[in-house]
Amino acid sequence: MREYQDRGYTRLFSNKEIFRQLITSFVQEAWVKDLDFSKCELVKGSFVSQKYKKTFSDLMYKVKFRGRDLYIVVLLEFKSAPSYFVAVQIAGYILDFYRHLIDSEKRLRKLPPVFPILLYNGKKRWTSPLNVSELVEGAAMLREYGLQCKYFPIIENTFSPKVLQQIGNIVSTLFLAEANFDADLLALKLDKLFEKAEDKQAVSLFINWLAHLFHHGKISEKDYAKLEKVYQSKE
């Protein structure tokens, strides 16, 4: 199951418009409004260590923030239950990326900021600590000398269908389909996506993801026929 989800999600969020929607709709941070998505770049290569490749996959973007480079990494967690020590794994990911920069850019004097996002689509409630410091016994004693690394969680099962419908973009429709699949509602949402989406390729990628689910037996033939009818009418 993880393998086809991995491929499908990686392909979806490799699209810059879908990535932009994820950040602007689901990251509630003040600095998001100052990001220049017109110049964002998908960074090639993975910084997930071989040990953790079965735990999550990664996508990293370089985005301009007030003229400077900001890196946003989306870590895709597809395990059915939360990984308790995932904050440590994410800290290791960022350090591996920094080591890569230090080794490859000899004149480097300052490291760029990296914003880590954990995207989880499992059914179980996410209970894992968000900060490495929460996993260290007696961390408060060390104060500023203790290790701090906090990730931003986007947990699909925490969003209500009502909220997702109000957002009404590709990413919220994806989350809606994952959490509460309703073919009739999804067909209606797809029709609206085609009408308002500037990036038709992004919508087509979402349709391909649904086809992916159908071919793996996650959507019935009857339900997929309803969705395909919308797609064909728009084509």
The dominant shape is globular
**What is the number of E strands?**
5
**Biggest sheet character:** 5 strands, mixed
- Rg computed from alpha carbons, rounded to a whole number of angstroms: 19 Å
What is the percent of helical residues?
A: 40-55%
| End-to-end Cα distance | 30 Å
Percentage of residues in strands: 15-25%
**Pattern of helices and strands:** HHEEEHEHEHHHHH
Average pLDDT, to the nearest integer?
Answer: 87
Strands in their spatial order, largest beta sheet: 1-2-3-4-5
Attribute tags:
235 residues; alpha/beta; five-stranded mixed β-sheet; 9 helices; 46% helix; 17% strand; globular
Q: In short, what is this structure?
A:
The protein has nine helices and five strands; from the N terminus they run ααβββαβαβααααα. It is of the alpha/beta class and 235 residues long.
How would you characterize this protein structure?
- The protein has 235 residues and is an alpha/beta fold.
- It is built from 9 helices and 5 strands; from the N terminus they run ααβββαβαβααααα.
- It has helices spanning 2-13, 16-26, 86-104, 139-142, 161-167, 170-179, 183-196, 200-215, 221-234, and strands spanning 35-43, 56-65, 68-77, 114-120, 152-155.
- Strands 1-2-3-4-5 form a 5-stranded mixed sheet.
- Strand 2 and strand 3 (68-77) form a beta hairpin.
- The radius of gyration is 19 Å and the shape is globular.
- The model has no long low-confidence stretch (mean pLDDT 87).
